[in-house]
Design a protein that fits this description.
six-stranded antiparallel beta barrel, 7 strands, mainly beta
Length: 82
């Protein structure tokens, strides 16, 4: 599933989730990410409610894939927050 990553400064980064779990996710992106970098992220609403939050880059898994740990999560239902 597509994912948008946002740094504190700069343009949004388009990524694709490789693996998604309760504690984090692996994403593939052609833009390099730095270990320990904190990013905002947004996951699309379908088939789940919109999920956004902050994640920290834990590792470079190679082939433009990075392991991220969720630092903070917010789930947004259509029409408002829950």
């Amino acid at each position: 599933m597509d994912c948008t990553l946002t740094r504190r400064i700069g343009n949004p980064i388009t990524a694709r989730t490789v693996d998604l779990g309760s504690g984090g996710m692996s994403v593939a992106t052609p833009r390099p990410l730095a270990i320990d970098e904190e990013l905002a992220f947004d996951l699309p609403p379908l088939p789940f409610p919109l999920v956004s939050g902050r994640a920290r880059v834990l590792r470079d898994e190679g082939h433009d894939v990075y392991g991220l740990r969720f630092e903070w999560l917010d789930r947004l239902e259509p029409g408002g927050m829950t």
